[in-house]
Automatic annotation (TrEMBL):
UniProtKB keywords: Oxidoreductase
The organism of origin for this protein: Salinicoccus kekensis
InterPro entries: Mal/L-sulf/L-lact_DH-like_ah (IPR043144), Mal/L-sulf/L-lact_DH-like_NADP (IPR043143), Mal/L-sulfo/L-lacto_DH-like_sf (IPR036111), Malate/L-lactate_DH-like (IPR003767)
MF annotations from Gene Ontology: oxidoreductase activity
Family: Belongs to the LDH2/MDH2 oxidoreductase family.
Keyword Phosphoprotein: no
Protein name: Ureidoglycolate dehydrogenase (NAD+)
Domain of life: Bacteria
Gene3D superfamilies documented for this protein: 1.10.1530.10, Hypothetical oxidoreductase yiak, domain 2 (3.30.1370.60)
Length: 336
């Protein structure tokens, strides 16, 4: 494993993407989203994904110069057509647009289509919350998880995220979870390491649970029917809502690299001022979190607020830890 300071990692990732045809601003946004995940300790969605994006660009499965089009469909709703670019940039542009609208509208919902993998959803809801708004986000992913009691995969890990503002200068409360026991990236991160993973993360090709990450073929939804039901709802609120791809119709992420992914995401922004005093909202949220921390625990520590572990990691370090392969990709000299 290698430690790289954040400015250097950002610059190297940005330059790699520029070398594949992206303009500097979109490349910088993609690099920021990846580093955000690494800083929070979610390396499965961090710089280790850069190699895949570079390969998909080379195979023609990502549009490096997308013509992103955003169209309002009502006073509080819009559709963003990402033109098959990198999802990080597409979603960022949609979020920026929505932030500008929600101040007066109170609630704004945006549907994003013709997108691709957009990294950690926490990045986007954090940005929303830092502007003083509540953020919700859903994303479909390609088929990887078996439905409850099923033997073949249908939905993806279909993550959902929330961001809650706590006042100027305070780190928002961020919740970002997959509807599977873990995200696929966490399994990929463990593969080849020789380490075992917990039973329940996924199954082998025969549908049997295994603790060997190299044998994992499919993931399992968390909570049995509960995670499966949420994954169902997220595909409805993204792909089906926009009359786009869903379920097994979504091109796989690590196969068919020449194909556009046609992924969809949804974002919802809420202005707390429209429902009460926003300062009271922030105060009550912090009071609730303080009350939770007063609850005794079985191990003598204290109750963690959702997202607190990731927040602490993000605030404590000015560098990221990446594996040797990712380091080589960042620092190898271009031969073209």
């Amino acid at each position: 494993m290698k430690a790289v300071d954040i400015p250097t990692a950002r610059d190297r990732a940005t330059e790699k993407l520029i070398s594949r045809g992206l303009e500097r601003r979109p490349a910088g946004i993609v690099a920021d989203v990846l580093l955000h995940a690494d800083q929070r300790g979610v390396s499965s969605h961090g710089l280790m994904r850069l190699e895949h994006y570079l390969k998909r660009i080379e195979h023609g499965g990502l549009n490096v110069r997308p013509d992103i089009n955003i169209e309002m469909t009502s006073g509080s709703s819009f559709v963003c057509d990402g033109d098959d670019g990198l999802g990080h940039y597409i979603v960022h542009e949609a979020v920026e647009y929505a932030i500008d609208k929600v101040k007066d509208q109170g609630i704004v919902m945006g549907l994003i289509k013709n997108s691709s993998h957009c990294g950690a959803l926490s990045y986007y809801v954090k940005e929303i919350a830092e502007h003083g708004y509540i953020g919700l986000m859903f994303s479909q992913t390609d088929t990887i998880a078996v439905p409850f009691k099923g033997t073949a995969p249908y939905f993806g890990s279909n993550p959902i995220a929330f961001g809650f503002p706590k006042g100027e200068g305070e780190y928002p409360t961020i919740i970002d979870i997959a509807t599977t026991e873990v995200a696929l990236g966490k399994v990929l991160h463990a593969q080849g390491s020789g380490a075992q993973i917990p039973y329940g993360w996924g199954t082998n090709v025969n549908g049997e649970e295994t603790n060997n990450p190299d044998d994992i073929k499919y993931l399992k939804h968390f909570g049995g029917p509960k995670g499966y039901a949420l994954a169902f709802a997220i595909d409805v609120l993204t792909g089906i809502l926009g009359n786009e791809s869903y379920g097994t119709n979504i091109p796989p992420m690590y196969e068919e690299l020449h194909k556009y992914r046609n992924l969809s995401q949804s974002i919802i922004l809420i202005n707390p001022k429209m429902f009460g005093d926003n300062l009271m909202f922030e105060s009550m949220l912090k009071q609730m979190e303080a009350e939770l921390k007063d609850i005794p625990t079985t191990d003598g520590s204290f109750v963690k607020i959702p997202g607190e572990i990731e927040m602490e990691k993000a605030l404590e370090s000015d560098e990221v830890i990446i594996n040797e392969d990712t380091y080589q990709i960042l620092f190898e000299e271009e031969e073209r």
